[in-house]
Amino acid sequence: MHFSWQLATFDELSNAQLYAILMARQEVFVVEQYCPYLDADGMDEVAYHLMGWEGDTLLAYLRILPPGITGEAVVIGRVLTVKKARKSGLGKMAMTKGMAHANALFPNKSICISAQTYLQAFYEELGFKFTGKAYLEDGIPHIEMITP
């Protein structure tokens, strides 16, 4: 099957794409991680959405928030790979592509992520540094990480 990446603003998303994104985010963050939280946080409308598709099936996703939305840095969040595609390298590929898009869209800006603590080494391999800020987000240990 054909695999492709797509970057879109909220207004460029089709209804089917938005539905696939929301379904994947709920499957991963709410159901798999047993974490009831309000996923529709009002930031999707200002975000860029990076989607990894195999045919019409969403396998990987992240969103990019412009600087000034939650701070001075660009924020990459809602990073996910669906269960059947894990351990395939798609997560790293999504982050690499997401960082490249963030740097192209917002040159000379740092990129910040709220990483689940157990993924610290994964994000360090991509160039992120732990800021020293650790916290619970929706009951899950997280750390703030940023690119130089």
Short recap of the structure:
By secondary structure, this protein is of the alpha+beta class.
Number of helices: 3
Q: Return residue spans where pLDDT drops below 50 for at least 5 consecutive residues.
A: none
Quote the distance from N terminus to C terminus: 38 Å
Q: What's the CATH first level?
A: Alpha Beta
Could you tell me the CATH topology label: Aminopeptidase
Task: Please state the CA-atom Rg, rounded to the nearest Å.
Answer: 15 Å
User: Mean of residue pLDDT?
Assistant: 94
Number of spatially distinct domains: 1
User: What is the string of helix and strand elements?
Assistant: EHEEEHEHEE
Helical content, roughly?
25-40%
Q: Decide which structural class fits the backbone.
A: alpha+beta
CATH architecture: 3-Layer(aba) Sandwich
- Sheet-strand content, in percent, reads 35-45%
Tell me what the structure shows.
The protein has 148 residues and is α+β, with helices and mostly antiparallel strands. The protein has helices at residues 15-32, 90-105, 120-125; strands at residues 3-9, 48-54, 57-65, 74-81, 111-116, 129-137, 140-146. It has one domain (3-146): Aminopeptidase (3-Layer(aba) Sandwich), CATH 3.40.630.30. A hairpin with a 2-residue loop joins strand 6 and strand 7. The longest helix has 18 residues, at 15-32. The N and C termini lie far apart (38 Å).
List the helices and strands and how they pair.
Layout: E1 3-9, H1 15-32, E2 48-54, E3 57-65, E4 74-81, H2 90-105, E5 111-116, H3 120-125, E6 129-137, E7 140-146
